[in-house]
Amino acid sequence: MTGGATQGRLFLLYFLPLLLLGILLFTFILWEEDEHFRELLAANESLQLELASRSITRDLETILPDIDLLTGSTQLKTFAFSQSDTAREQLLEEWLTFLRQKRQYSVLRLIDTQGKERLRVDRYHGGLRVLEEHELQDKSHRYYFSEAIALGPGELYISPMDLEMERGKVLQPPIPMIRFAMPLFDAEGNKHGVFVISYMAERLLDHFEEMLGASRGHVSLLNGEGYWLRSLRDPDREWGFSLGHDWTYEKAHPEAWTEIRDGDRGQFERGEHLFSFRTLYPLEVAGGYKAEDDGDHQGHYHIDPRSYRWKVVSDIDPVLLQQVMHQHLFGLPLAIGLLLMGLAALGVWLRVRMQYERRRLHRQLALDALVVEATTDGVFITDAERRILSVNDGFSRITGYDEAEVLGRTPRYLSAGFHDAKLLEGIWRSLEIEGRWQGEVSNRRKDGGLYHEWLSLRRVEDERGGVLNYVGIFSDITARKREEQQLKHRAHHDALTGLPNRTLMEDRLRQILAHCRRGDGRAALMFIDLDRFKPINDEYGHEAGDAVLREVAARLSAVVREEDTVARLGGDEFVVLAGDGRSIDNLRALAERLLLELRRPFDIDGISCRISASIGVALFPDHGEEGDTLLKHADEAMYRIKQQGRDGVAFYEEG
Fold first, then answer.
1. Cα distance between residue 490 and residue 344, in whole Å
2. Helix or strand or coil: residue 141?
3. What is the pLDDT of residue 346?
4. CA dist 456 to 440, 479, 484, 566, 576, Å?
5. Dist. CA 326–CA 452, nearest whole Å
6. pTM for this model (two decimals)
7. Is the separation of the CB atoms in 199 and 63 below 8 Å?
8. Are the C-beta atoms of 142 and 167 separated by less than 8 Å?
9. What's the whole-number mean pLDDT along residues 255-261?
């Protein structure tokens, strides 16, 4: 045997075991990194779905206060019950004002009990359009009408998300829509129709897509039947149930769909795909609590809040991950050629690359955590005993408390005795039974100021179902509540004087008359028209005239009792409502005192002005038993004073 052959055998004897050991070591390192890389990727995808789901929840939660405002409108109820032209014009003005401020809604409509539209305002080509009588349609065949008309008082119907249709056809381009409908009842429980508001869901879908910038997978938003509502990968698959094609997730991934459909949330592998999913219940988010849960908030109730659900699903093809590994393996033949040095160098290089990918994913997860930390919402986490463990900056900004001030305390510390024990016990009982609670609560900041928040609480469990933590996320809705209150005030008060306007005056008149009927009492309506007011406007300008009107309002309010009402109907016309408890002589004396107050000179920027007033008085029940009749008769009595030379008081006289 030659020396060369011997050396060759020795080379193989020593090299092959070493090479085999190097290959085994390389394979082990690759397997270990592959598993860790998959875990990080799966955690990142779960976080992305959670952020996207919270975006949808936040958008839905903003809708309920708007529905409360519209369905509680006096103008809506007046028109639904009476169908008068005056009520229709007042309701139209309110709807147009609302739609100018709230551009996420496209249609407001009132439908009678037979399914016929009685009033409708559309957002049309960037503007607003009131439909004429001949354009109003029969909606008795539409599902949202038949569902809503069957509900009881205070119940709200929320439609599935679908595409807007007009006269049986899908509008082009397609417009995703969710409809909210509530039946209207009078005080005796008689049903007078259905109010419907259409929410343009494209905004919700855009927000959903924006939250998925760091996702590695193909993310979809599906309805409960597996149809795509939004596909980030293939938009042509969307809205199959409305557009007539049968693309469903079940057809694309039949085995995976079964587990996604039946589960609430999870993560699993099927074939070459890693699936992550979350379930959203829109009806539960927007209406899953009753009014009696919180006496200060008008809740909504749906027969089965979980009867309609959406699925947020991500699928990742692990082949994309394996391609990175295969790129590392590509240098293996070269490592064999370079013997142990090349193999070692390749292993080091692969290790560095894998560590780089790990650090990159860690940075991505840290960035996602930073997004949560930087959110404007407040976040707090408690232990199983409800003691606060950590809070984010949003919590401190909203409440005024630093983290150190609340650690170890319970969230009840924030209420500062504002909520009763029964409400707080109800919240925690819901957490124990259902695992979640959400609703509107009011707390006090560190400086003692009251604020309103929309709070979502969730229970976190271990593998055995035991409680690990409670997580609370809340947003400050104080400004929105203030805006709603201001909108309500503007709808019922005169902008110049701050007095109740005609709408609020008529409502209080109905209440006064109802009280008098129950107690067999008397009430008075005084119609006041200012004399010699127009010359002030003509000679000194409208600013001076406005100043006089404000002073008139102040003087009238100072004379009457606190429980009486002074209202401005418009121009120089005022009304005083004097409730039960006065004789006719007392009412006449009150009218004379009002007249004397208005005769006193008005000092407007150094200018002395004089006016007077003509006051007509109508009594209940002597001169009429309905508000419209009393107003008419008081007006007639006032004009009699005008004809007799003005500056006086007259009671209505029949004939």
1. 78
2. coil
3. 55
4. 9, 19, 22, 43, 47
5. 55
6. 0.50
7. yes
8. no
9. 92
Give CA separation, 83 vs 76, 384, 508, in Å: 10, 56, 20
Beta bridge partners of residue 473, listed in sequence order:
379, 456
Strands (E), 17-78: none
Ordered DSSP codes for 23-37: HHHHHHHHHHHHHHH
Q: Distance between CA atoms of 465 and 455, rounded to whole angstroms?
A: 24
Q: What are phi and psi of 15, to 5 degrees?
A: -75, -45
- Assigned token pair, 451: 């604020």
Peptide bond into 17 cis (omega under 30): no
| Predicted local distance difference test score (pLDDT) of residue 249 | 92
**Helix, strand, coil share of the chain (percent; to 5):** 50, 25, 25
DSSP state letter for 564: S
Neighbours of 510 (CB within 10 A): 13
| Spatial contact of 590 and 544, defined as CB atoms under 8 Å apart | no
E strands along 186-329, which residues?
A: 191-200, 218-223, 228-231, 265-270, 273-280, 288-289, 300-301, 310-316
SS (H, E, C) 372-414: HHHCCCEEEEEECCCCEEEECHHHHHHHCCCHHHHCCCCCHHH
The answer on pLDDT for 358 being more than 50 is yes
Q: Please say whether the beta carbons of 340 and 20 come within 8 A.
A: no
What's the chain's Rg over C-alpha atoms? 36
Strand partners, 443: 451
pLDDT reading at 604 higher than 70: yes
Model pLDDT, residue 82 = 86
Cis status of the peptide bond prior to 160, with omega within 30 of 0? no
**pLDDT-wise least confident of 123-137, 281-295, 469-483:** 281-295
Read off φ and ψ for residue 438, nearest 5 degrees.
Answer: -150, 150
- The rounded mean pLDDT for the chain is 83
What is the Cα–Cα distance from 224 to 260, expressed in whole angstroms?
10
pLDDT at residue 649, as a whole number: 95
Q: Which residues pair with 219 in a beta bridge?
A: 314
Residue 7 pLDDT grade (very low, low, confident, very high; cuts 50, 70, 90): very low
Q: What is the dihedral of CA 408, 410, 414, 419, to 10 degrees?
A: -160
CA nearest to 576, candidates 595, 558, 556: 556
* Count of residues in the chain: 655
Largest CA distance in the chain: 147
Poorest-pLDDT segment among 28-32, 499-503, 538-542: 28-32
Q: What are phi and psi of 374, to 5 degrees?
A: -85, -5
pLDDT one-digit tens code per residue, 50-85 = 888 888 888 888 888 899 899 988 889 889 888 888
CA 335 to CA 341: how far, in whole Å?
8
Burial class (CB in 10 A: 0-12, 13-18, 19+), 38: middle
pLDDT of amino acid 300: 42
Q: Please name the helix (run of DSSP H) or strand (run of DSSP E) that holds residue 205, with its range, or none.
A: helix 202-210
Considering only residues 593 and 44, tell me which one the structure prediction assigns the higher pLDDT: 593
State yes or no: pLDDT of 288 exceeds 50.
no
Q: How far apart are CA 528 and CA 578, in angstroms?
A: 13
Lowest mean pLDDT among 184-198, 297-311, 317-331, 397-411: 317-331
d(CA 117, CA 145): 11
Q: Report which DSSP code applies to 237.
A: G
Question: CA torsion angle for 81, 86, 91, 92 (degrees, to 10)?
Answer: 130
Which tokens in the block code for residue 381? 């986490």
